[in-house]
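Why Class II aldolase/adducin family protein? Reviewers of the renewal asked for a concrete example.
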Amino acid sequence: MDDAPLLDEAAARRELAACYRLFDHLGWTEAIFNHLTLRVPSPQGQPHYLINPFGLHYSEVTADNLVKIDAEGNDIDGTGRQVNRAGFVIHGAIHAARPDAHCVMHVHTTAGCAVACKEDGLRHDNFYSAMLYGDVGYHDYEGVTTGLAERPRLVRSLGERQHLILRNHGLLAVGGTVAQCFQRLWTLQRACEIQLASDAGAGPNRQIPVDVLERVPATRLAMSDGHKGASISQQMFEALLRRYGIER
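Here is what the prediction returned.
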């Protein structure tokens, strides 16, 4: 479990809004749909989190227009801005059930949706998918996610894992910070892209032995934990913000 402290709301707004704009630069947008959410401190002890207002493209999301809602989708500050129901059905369920999941990201990238449509899902036979061995859950498609009854099943499908493939649908990742969640989703997205590319080549893929797969996640975590200063995920996030000229 992650024990990252919550950012104060002003800082959280800047961090999440910058991430929305980063997704735009990476081409991970889906018109006005999909969501990135970040938990903020709440006096009631119930999860409050920031989400994009429905109707805006990711490039239009700013720290000021993010909407603070609770797990039931209530507009805490009474802004009157509309929120997509699927956003609080999925994200609210995970935020409520996973105290460590301060940040939740969900996308419909082409590579992610394509792998989600395959019966076998993600194979652990490339550099990035090997990093995710044992940490990817699957959730069966039940239609557009607008019903509260699906929430317990979503939570069970994710379990204690950090990555979820929504079958026939898309990808989801959770994390203790925006940067950590972003790196996890980026890794899952790269794994899907490489799987699609390798499937286009002639001949079978070379398999990675299970004993190697079992060691890879621990090796990755040890590298991250042993790094001095800012976390690798934060350094990666900051580097990409600089690359695309994104200011908080």
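Helices lie at 9-26, 85-97, 110-116, 127-131, 151-158, 178-199, 210-225, 232-243. This is the kind of structural detail the renewal will allow us to pursue systematically.
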